[in-house]
C-alpha cells in the first residue's frame, strides 16, 4: 500500500513568522500520519458489520476524508504562498475581473469569506457554471463543492495566525494576501485547462 510522504516547504514570508510556519507544518505532518494510519486500519477493517449508526469501518471512512482533506488543503495552502502578493496577474486576473467585476470586488468578498470562516476559504473554479466562487469551509471535509477546482486557499483556523496576530484575524489575512504566489494560482488554472484537452 502506498503511503503519503509530507512535502517539504522552504517558506520565508512577510508578516507570517518562521515559528508560525514551523508549528503549522507540524499540524500538516500530523494529517499525513493520520491518513496513513487510517489507510492501514482500513485494510483489515470489518466490512461485514458496517453500519450507518456506528461501525469501525464507518468511522475510518468518515475520518479518512477529514485527514486526507487536511493534507490536501495544507499542501495547496503552502504551495500558493511565497510570492509577492499584490493584485492578481495573468489569466486569473482576467477571470476575477469577469466574474467579480474587479479585483477589488473579489478581494473584498474573499476577505469577508475568510473572516467568516472557522477553517478555510477557497477560491474555486466551477466547471459546471464556468465561474469563480469563494467558498467557506468550516472543516476540512465540510463545505466542499463537488467538482469545484481549488485555485487559492487560505487557512483561517486559529493555528495559522494566533502566534503572530492573536485575535487580529484581519491582520493575518492581509499578511496572507501580501504573500500570494499568483504564478501558482495561474498554474492551477492552466493545469485544469490542459486536463480538458483529453
Features:
7 helices; single chain; 198 residues; Mn/Fe_SOD; oxidoreductase; 3-stranded antiparallel sheet; mainly alpha; metal-binding; EC 1.15.1.1; Mn/Fe_SOD_N_sf
The gist of it:
Helices cover 52% and strands 11% of the residues. With 198 residues, the chain is mainly alpha-helical.
Give structural notes.
The chain is mainly alpha-helical and 198 residues long. It is 52% helix and 11% strand. It contains 7 helices and 3 strands; from the N terminus they run ααααβββααα. It has helices spanning 18-44, 56-79, 90-100, 103-116, 162-165, 169-177, 182-195; strands spanning 120-126, 131-137, 149-155. The chain has a 3-stranded antiparallel sheet. β1 and β2 form a beta hairpin. The chain is globular, with a radius of gyration of 18 Å. The mean pLDDT is 95. Keywords: Metal-binding, Oxidoreductase. Belongs to the iron/manganese superoxide dismutase family. It is an enzyme of class 1 (oxidoreductase). Residues 90-188 form the Manganese/iron superoxide dismutase C-terminal domain. GO terms for molecular function: superoxide dismutase activity.
**What's the Cα radius of gyration?**
18 Å
Q: What proportion strand?
A: 5-15%
Strand order of the largest sheet: 2-1-3
Distance between the termini: 29 Å
Q: Oligomerization state of this entry?
A: single chain
Envelope shape: globular
- How many β-strand runs? 3
The helicity comes to 40-55%
Order of helices and strands: HHHHEEEHHH
